[in-house]
What does this fold into?
Amino acid sequence: MRCMEVDGADIHSDIALIKRMLAEDGEFVFLYAGKGAIHDYIHSLHDGGNGLDDEELYKFRICYAGKNLNVKFLRDDKGFWQDITSMKCLIDALDTATSCYIDVSSDSREEFAFIVQQLIYIQYPLDKADVFLSQEFRDAENMPLRIRELGDKLTAIRAAAVEVKQRLLLAKDDPSMATPSLIKLSANIDSYVECGNKVKAYLEILHKLLVENRDFRLAIAATKKTGKSVIVNSLIGQDLASTDIQLATPGNFIYRKSTDNKYHLWMEDDEHNQLFHKIYDSRLDLCKDAEGMCRCAQNDMNNGFSLRDVSIGYPASDDSLFASLTVYDTPGPDAAGTNHREAARRALNECDAAVFCIDYSKYLTDSEEEYLKEVRDIFKARQKFHSLIFVLNKMDARYADAKQSKSIAGAVDFIKTRLSQIADEYRDCIIFPISALEYFNAAEAERAGVTELNAPISANELKKLKFARRDVPELSWLHTHSLNLECYHGVAKFCYYVFKRDSGMPALISYLTRIATVKSPLEIVNHVAAEIEQQYQTFDDLFGSAGIHIGGDSYEAG
Ligand SMILES: Nc1nc2c(ncn2[C@@H]2O[C@H](COP(=O)(O)OP(=O)(O)O)[C@@H](O)[C@H]2O)c(=O)[nH]1
Ligand SMILES: [Mg+2]
It folds into this structure.
């Protein structure tokens, strides 16, 4: 990819240079090495309409120059690792047609997030670039061995606890064995039992990780009407979550794949007893019932206009993306007088990762800011900010609204700056610009069997298609959008692949897949390992005083 540095020292010469390069190569990438934020620089380049015009801003690709990188780079078609020290170095080495690996040798999450975000700024296809921390890679390789070692430690703790119990029993019959330190242990026998239960719970978690394909739980959170349900439908590959403009989601709707190829709707009480369970052959019948439940809740003042968590099972092919994904469509917390806030908070606490969605067309409202502070508190307590991902949705709105920022990097950079002002913890967050509706409409047309868009066709042919297939209303949206892509980006041919890629969703999905398959299991093992180490130490100190050493030979391990 071709690239060049700019620094804003002489804005007029920058404008002239950028205009010239964009006319030559629409994909040209600029690296910002100046002071201040990229969104402010873009504002200066626009110069109230005297500088870069809208068409140029749509095309303009820019990211930060990042001159102190310490990463290793491998391209699939080359057999050697290359040292990378700046974004210029990286972009020179990238090729959109070839997959690559970017190994963040410093193990710094900040550097990792920086690189991923810069690739998003320049709209690089993230599914072609695998960015990872060196430590993560080593951990993943060592995971089976590590789990075995942790299992051994747990067995040793158990064996030592059994030994303590046996000695206490013997001491009852033989007072000479009742040393003062053993008697001291007997006073706390209840707390060992409790620890024993904890140890058992860890064993179960590890067992699940090793033996079962663990479920990945993802919560989608946002204020109302930001596009949560469209994102959910895009991820599960079904039109299930209601996007009726008059109907707010009044509780958590939890979607997971069913095992019998049917649709299911069920609800449980607080003790996980099923309150009801209905099975459907038809998606539409289930949707009708689910919408009916939402409508009832809208008038149910006694229950805070809310629903208990509703679970939905849906048939999905085995090769479907995220086969073991559970998605929580959470209620927006911004409806006064409802219990919606509480339900969303619960989902955010239960999930392995969360997507927080911001409406591009509104640029952070007061209620979004308030919700973001609350989410910061939840994730602070959980100590896992990197599993909180941001999306800036409705990016397609920049074509329709004259006042909106035309540059994707400009819009994302602005929100990124705002987020770091709202909470320091959001400084290293990653924001994905997407148009969930574009992805969803393309997927719906595909599911409706419109095969003409499997291969590229012109905007004019797409126009004819939308009239020929009036039964597929999504084609009309896609056609309107194709005119924007043709006019502002010079796209001549359209197919599902083009729309999906333009939507930004594949980049988000590939990032989520990585979290689900690598980061989340590692995080669980690390968490469990830390707890086990702590328990090991506590027991060892405690039992050691009575001459019993965990894993030692002072007893028969059993
Ligand atoms: N233009 C545009 N509209 C969207 C997009 N995503 C969602 N919407 C619309 O925003 C409205 C609210 O979407 P919905 O998913 O119901 O929002 P929720 O309340 O957050 O679940 C609907 O009319 C959607 O069609 C998008 O990417 N672009
Ligand atoms: Mg919704």
